[in-house]
Amino acid sequence: MFILNPDPYSLPTYRIGPFKTDDVGSNAKLPIDDFAIDYFNNRFGAGKWQYTFNGREAIKIALEKYNLQPTDLVTILTTSQNFYISSCVTKEIESFCRWNREIVPETKVIFVNHEFGYPYPEMEKLVATGLPIIEDCCTTFFSQDQSGKLGQYSDFSVFSFPKFLPIQIGGLLVNNAYADVKKSQRLNEKELAYIQNVLSYYLRKDEAILKTRKENWNYAISKFSKLGLTPRFQDHKMSVPSALVLQNNGTIKDLNEFKTFLYNHGIQNSVFYGEDAFFIPVHQNLTFADFDYFYEVIQFYIQH
User: Fold this and answer.
1) What is the chain's percent helix, strand, coil content, to nearest 5?
2) What is the pTM (predicted TM-score) of this model?
């Protein structure tokens, strides 16, 4: 059985990302390893990428290259074109200029958020506008589109490692257009070594990670469909979701109250605001038993 409505001091911890408490010690003990350098050189090209403290710093460095003025406009587009967009993105843009959600004559830069691991479907049309593009690939580290060009349509692409790997810090900025770009100001030598060693360890296991994530996705969908919950995004063979976004279909009457209920059971989640949907974890460090627990918690809420 699973314990529902537990003592708040005895909660489990299920994060959207795969980092868990045990990783503090295991990551600290990893040997020096430069496998990640070869991985990124092969994927993006030598000299075209750099580590950053997180995805937000990568966004900031990219935006700095455009000499944006406070009255300029950055247009944010997302895969779903729902109005939902993380404040991590909007706050970085607001430190430079204004933002909106539709390309207009005043648009100076297009910021494309490949959402929840699913590529924006019309990148070629955006390239045809001639406007500078930044691709937010923070949730699409392992995903690809049909053209195999995800992250390469743009001047810059940005990534966030904690979305997919058990690491506490680390982002990536890929420079597709400029000869020189400002370097990270937040990472010290020890942090760089930590990121390098942890990435090297887990990128050697990428096939196993992807296999487990796929198995977890399929199992979770089979469970939650019994409650009337269905995938919000269509499953594509080349997409690796960063979270399980579920269409509510009117099943849960108050998603904000439901969000709190899941948190009170140790499950990180959020409402996909603007739609009748929400998202929960689906990463490789979860087991089928964990999804059984999620199922029991959600079923209990629906019934009571």
Assistant:
1) 35, 15, 50
2) 0.95
